[in-house]
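Researcher: Here's a chain I'd like modeled. Treat it as a single chain, no partners, no ligands.
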Amino acid sequence: MQRIVTKVAGEVGFYFAIAFFVVVTTFPFYWMLITSFKSNPDLYDVTNIPFWFNEAPTLEHFRYLFEQTLFVRWLLNSLVIGLCVVTITLIAALPAGYSLARMTGRNGEALGIGIFLTYLVPPTLLFLPLSRIVANLGLQNSMWSLVLVYPTFTIPFCTWLLMGFFKALPPEIEEAAIVDGCSLFGAFVRMVIPLSLPAILTTVIFTFTLTLQEFVYALTFISSSAQKPITLGVATDLVRGDIFFWGEIMAGALIASVPVAIAYNLLLDRFITGITGGAVK
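Model: Modeled as a single isolated chain. Structure tokens:
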């Protein structure tokens, strides 16, 4: 009897914990969803219940975003910046991670840790020297300045991530390809990269997410509304002095975050494989 009670209590505790984490993780999306469809009288009346509709839902906030702001342009800017940074990061991080993984001794691991430590340097310490570089290149107030700057923190992290995954791949794979007539580069392209697709996918997701959520560099280098990414445009152009357009802000945040959340869930298995691939050698 005691064993049954213990088992039931364990199952109840397990499902309670699952329900708790589900509520915690989904509440921000629920709050963005309900706020973006609330009318302004419903939204700003402090006597109303904030967790439900007290008046009929409305699309006025979405109309304002698409008709009265450059929201579509901000989305396109973020997409272009993300794709460019992902491409640059893969071109640099793939060979760098592979080279570090195949270095003999402790030199590769020490160098990899050193590269990763550069990722930990906060942007608040780097935006001043980087702003000088951006100014010398004539990229002030241009989204291409972000394409130049963002790889400074995406490449170190992704190099370290890929290095751990490449270490899990046995060197015999490349050696067999070389015996069959491939060059080292050919073995890397034909054998290593196809086996590393989970890690590459993880790198793409991380890189795009990092560029999408970055704010300090965007705020420093861009002031024109037409050049802003989505994070900066929503946070600055939808605030007038001390007035926050909460309906439009939540609508913009919802549109920007839901596709990323869906991508994470659809690719969750490969994402976990890429993260844990370098954990076991």
